[in-house]
Amino acid sequence: MRIALTRDPAQAGPLEAGLRAAGLQVQFLPLTEQRLPEDTSALKTALAQLSRGEFAWLLLASGNAVRALCRVGWDGTVPEGVRVGVVGPGTARVLADLTSVTDPWMPAGEKSAAGVLAEMPAAASGAEASLLLPQSRQARSELRRGLETGGWQVTQIGAYETASLVAGGRLEAGVHPLRLLPTPEPAHLLDLDRQAADLRRDRLTHFNPTVVLVTSSSAADALADLGVPERVRLLAIGRPTAKTLGRRGITQAHVLREPSAAAVLAALGR
C-alpha cells in the first residue's frame, strides 16, 4: 500500500519511519511550503532583543520556526538564564540539527500547544515573565492567549508564512527563493499525473489505491483547491485539519487520534 503525506520530505520523522517499517510505500505530496516573510526586520529585531537578554524564554512551536530563526542568523545562542522550550520532539530534533541546543524544555505529557499550556512553569513577575514566541504568520491565537492568561508577557513574531502550491486547480511546485526547506527530490514525491494515467489504464478493483495523510489545516485547504485525486482514501491528523476539510466539502476523511504510525495503521486496519 502506498501512503502520501501532504508535507515536505525534509519534515519526515518517526511517523514516516514507522510506516516504512510496517511495509508501506511512503511518498510525499507537499501542497504548501513554508517561506521566510519578505520583510524580516521584525524577526531580526526580536533576535537582537533575545541576545540582549530581554526575554526570559524562547518558546518554539515548530521546526519551521527554528529554521526561520536560523535563516536570519540565529545559531542557538541565548544569554545565560534564558530558557528555550519546544512543543515536542520534532521541533527538538530540528533544533539539535541546526543549533547547539540539545536539551530544551518540553511538556512531559501531550506534545502540543495544549501540553505546553498545561505544563508551562508559572510566570514570574516583571522581565522574568517575558517570552518570545516565533510562529507562522497564519498561526492560531490559542497558544499566545493561553500563555498570556497564565501571566506571560508574550511577544509573538511572524517568523515564516505558509503558501499554497496549488494554483488554478493544479499543483505548481516551483522553487521560491524564500523557501525554508531544501527542494525535494522528485523520486520522493507522489506523481499525480502518473497516478491518473495508471487509473486510466487499469480500472479494475485490484489497482492499489493511494492513501493521503492530510497533515495540517493549510494542506487541507490546498487539497480542496486541488480536488481530491480519484480513488484516494483520506486520513487527517487532528480535528482542526478534519474540520477544515469538512468546511471545504470533503467529509470522507478519517481523523487520527494522534500523529503516529500506530494510529495510521490502526485506521487502515493493519
UniProtKB/TrEMBL annotation:
Top-level taxonomic group: Bacteria
Keywords: Lyase, Porphyrin biosynthesis
CDD domains in the cross-refs: HemD
EC number(s) given by UniProt: 4.2.1.75
Tetrapyrrole biosynthesis uroporphyrinogen III synthase domain boundaries: 15-264
SUPFAM superfamilies (alphabetical): HemD-like
Pathway annotation from the record: Porphyrin-containing compound metabolism; protoporphyrin-IX biosynthesis; coproporphyrinogen-III from 5-aminolevulinate: step 3/4
Protein name: Uroporphyrinogen-III synthase
Physiological role: Catalyzes cyclization of the linear tetrapyrrole, hydroxymethylbilane, to the macrocyclic uroporphyrinogen III.
Statement: the UniProt record of this protein carries the keyword Magnesium: no
The keyword Lyase is annotated on this UniProt entry: yes
Family of this protein: Belongs to the uroporphyrinogen-III synthase family.
A matching Pfam family: HEM4
Species of origin: Nesterenkonia lutea
PANTHER family hit by this protein: UROPORPHYRINOGEN-III SYNTHASE, CHLOROPLASTIC (PTHR38042)
Catalytic activity: hydroxymethylbilane = uroporphyrinogen III + H2O
